[in-house]
Write a structure and sequence with these properties.
Keywords: Membrane, Transmembrane, Transmembrane helix. By secondary structure, this protein is an alpha+beta fold. Helices cover 50% and strands 13% of the residues. The strands form two sheets. Strands 3-4-1-12-11-9 form a six-stranded antiparallel β-sheet, with no helix packed on it. The protein has a six-stranded mixed β-sheet with strand order 2-6-5-7-8-10, with no helix packed on it.
C-alpha cells in the first residue's frame, strides 16, 4: 500500500474528528445559553450525530478522490451525488448511538467506559457502511465475492476503530496527570486517527499495473482482415513483443487479427505491465510494445511496485495528460492512476493513446 494513501486517510480522520468536536461544542454552548446554563438533553445527542456525519463524509470523499486522482471535476460531481445520502445514513446512525447511550445509562448498570465503547463501535460501524455502500455502487467488483469481503472489512475495521479509540480515551481519563477537560477531544482525535488508518487498509485496492489501449488503436474485425488479404495490402498493426513476458489482462478472443497474430493490440484491451522490468515502447522491431510509425524506443516504463515511472527518450513523441508534476528536465515522470499517455509520430498523422492504471479492478 502506498504511504500517501495511509497518510491521506489518517489526515481525513483527524480533520473530521476535530471539525465535529468544534462544531458540536459551539452548538452545545448555544443550547446552554438558550436553556439558562444547563442542557435539556445529554451532550451525546449533538456529539455523536456530528461525529458520525463528518467521519462518514470524509471517508467517502477520500475514497472517491483516491480512486480517480486525475479527475477532479468528475470527483466533485460524484461526491455531490452521495452527499445527501451520507448525511441521512450518518445522521440515523448518530441518533441511534445517542439513543443507545441514553438507554444504557438509564436502564443498565454499565460503566461510562463500557457505554462509550459500545456507542463508538456503532459510529465506526456506520462509517464503514457508508463508505462500503458508496464504493459498491461505483465499483465493477461491487457485487462480487471480493466486493462483499471488502464491505465486511470496512464494517469490521470501523467498529474496531471505535472500540480501540474508546479504550485509549478511557486509559487517558484514568491518568491523573492528564487534564480531564482534554479527555473527550483527545478521544475524538484518537478515534479519527485509528479510523483513518484501519480503513486505509480495509479499502486498499487490488493493484494491477496496466495500460489500456484507447483512441488511435482501432478494433479489428474479420471483414476488414479478409478485405486486406484479398487486396494484398495488410496493415502494420500495434502489437506486443511475443516473448512471454507481456500479456493482456483479459485475453482477446481467438478471432479476427488475433487468430493469426495473438499479440495484436486492439482498442479496449489492457496490457499487464511486469514488475521490475523495463518496458520499451516505440516503432522499432525490438520494442516491447510496438507502435507503427512511432520513433524507435521513444519511451520506457519501469514498474517498481506500487510505483511506475515513464522515461521519455523522444519528448516530442510523448504527451502526458494531466501532467501532475513540474516538467522533468530528464524526461522522467511518475505515472498516476487514470493518466493518459499519447504516442505520436513527428508529423502528427499517427497517434496512439493509452490509459495507465495502477488499481485496475477498482472504480474507473
Amino acid at each position: 500500500m502506498r504511504p500517501e494513501r495511509l497518510t491521506l486517510y489518517i489526515l481525513s480522520g483527524i480533520v473530521a474528528a476535530l471539525v465535529s468536536w468544534d462544531i458540536s461544542q459551539i452548538l452545545l454552548e448555544l443550547a446552554r445559553n438558550i436553556s439558562g446554563g444547563t442542557l435539556p438533553f445529554r451532550p451525546d445527542f449533538i456529539l455523536l450525530p456530528f461525529l458520525a456525519f463528518f467521519f462518514a463524509i470524509s471517508m467517502v470523499a477520500t475514497e472517491i478522490f483516491l480512486s480517480n486522482p486525475t479527475r477532479y471535476r468528475n470527483n466533485f460531481q460524484t461526491l455531490r451525488s452521495y452527499f445527501f445520502k451520507t448525511i441521512l445514513w450518518s445522521a440515523i446512525a448518530g441518533l441511534c448511538a445517542a439513543i443507545f447511550t441514553f438507554t444504557l445509562y438509564e436502564l443498565t448498570s454499565l460503566s461510562a467506559g463500557d457505554v462509550k465503547r459500545f456507542v463508538w463501535c456503532i459510529v465506526g460501524l456506520s462509517t464503514g457502511i457508508c463508505e462500503g455502500i458508496s464504493w459498491r455502487s461505483r465499483s465493477m467488483e461491487g457485487l462480487t465475492d471480493k466486493g462483499n469481503k471488502r464491505i465486511k472489512n470496512t464494517v469490521l475495521f470501523g467498529s474496531l476503530a471505535g472500540f480501540s479509540a474508546a479504550l485509549i480515551a478511557e486509559k487517558f481519563s484514568q491518568n491523573t496527570s492528564f487534564s480531564k477537560e482534554y479527555n473527550e477531544p483527545f478521544g475524538f482525535l484518537a478515534f479519527g486517527l485509528i479510523l483513518g488508518a484501519l480503513l486505509s487498509f480495509a479499502t486498499s485496492p487490488t493493484y494491477q499495473v496496466a495500460l489500456r489501449a484507447g483512441e488511435g488503436i482501432a478494433s479489428i474485425n474479420q471483414k476488414i482482415i479478409d478485405e486486406e488479404i484479398r487486396s494484398g495490402m495488410i496493415r502494420d498493426l500495434p502489437k506486443l513483443k511475443p516473448r512471454g513476458a507481456f500479456q493482456f489482462v483479459v485475453e482477446p478472443p481467438n478471432e479476427g487479427a488475433n487468430a493469426k497474430e495473438p499479440d495484436v493490440i486492439e482498442e479496449g484491451l489492457s496490457i499487464q505491465l511486469p514488475n521490475g522490468q523495463p518496458i520499451t515502447i516505440g516503432g522499432g522491431d525490438d520494442d516491447d510494445i510496438y507502435l507503427p510509425e512511432i520513433p524507435s524506443k521513444c519511451a520506457e516504463i519501469r514498474v517498481k511496485f506500487p510505483y511506475a515511472k515513464i522515461i521519455c527518450h523522444e519528448t516530442s513523441a510523448v504527451e502526458l495528460f494531466p501532467t501532475l508534476r513540474n516538467e522533468s528536465q530528464d524526461g522522467e515522470y511518475t505515472l498516476w492512476h487514470n493518466q493518459i499517455i499519447t504516442f505520436k509520430n513527428p508529423d502528427g498523422k499517427e497517434f496512439y493513446r493509452f490509459v495507465f492504471y495502477d488499481r485496475f479492478l477498482d472504480p474507473q
